[in-house]
Amino acid sequence: MPLWLWWAIALALVGAELMTGTFYLLAIAVAFLAGGIVAWAGGALTIQLAIAGVVGVAGSALAYYYQQKTQLNNQASTMMLDVGKKVIVVQWNADKTARVEYSGTQWDAVLASPETPCHTEMKIAEVRGSTLVLTALD
Q1: 26 HSE (CA, 13 A, CB side)
Q2: b/e per residue, 6-45, with b = 16+ CB within 10 A?
Q3: Structural domain boundaries of the chain?
Q4: Of 45, 89, 127, 130, which is least surrounded by CB within 10 A?
Q5: The CATH homologous superfamily of the domain defined by 83-136
Q6: Measured in whole angstroms, how far is the alpha carbon of residue 22 from the centre of its chain?
Q7: Enclosing H/E stretch for 80
Q8: Nearest CA to 26 among 40, 38, 37, 11?
Q9: What's the rounded Cα separation, in Å, for the pair 99 and 77?
């Protein structure tokens, strides 16, 4: 494959990545750049493709890891914003679980401890997945 073709494809992928904002296209662009470098150094086509493939897989794996880490950090920080907010209890169940009104929708909720009294207004002590953990208002 000609040297200029490797770099032209890499440049096109960088442009596409700038429009989409994903790191996957950037990883593939770096892989094409690596293939172009091997072509510039005079490597055979099979070596060019192998290097581009390895760099592409490794870069995609790094992009996936980064995306997962970023999503987990964003979820954790979003959940921390809910702690301490007041909720309105719509319904208490016999097992001391509840349905609460919070942020414009209804959520499942549990008490922080069995000794926590059941009131109609509570506050969020913790978020466990999609379940709010409630404690009494101060």
Answers
A1: 12
A2: bbebbeebbeebeeeeebbbbbbbbbbbbbbbbbeeeeee
A3: 3-80, 83-136
A4: 130
A5: Nucleic acid-binding proteins (2.40.50.140)
A6: 12
A7: helix 45-82
A8: 11
A9: 24
pLDDT for 74 equals 60
What pLDDT, in 10s, does the model give residues 23-57? Answer: 899 999 999 999 999 999 999 999 999 999 999 99
Name the residue with higher pLDDT: 34 or 75.
34
Specify burial of residue 122 (Cβ count, 10 A radius: 0-12, 13-18, 19+): buried
Query: pLDDT per residue over 85-135, tens digit each?
Result: 888 888 888 888 889 988 888 889 999 888 888 888 889 888 887 888 998
Q: Is 103 within 8 Å of 132 (Cβ atoms)?
A: no
* DSSP code per residue over 31-51: HHHHHHHHHHTT--HHHHHHH
Residue 73 scores a pLDDT above 70 = no
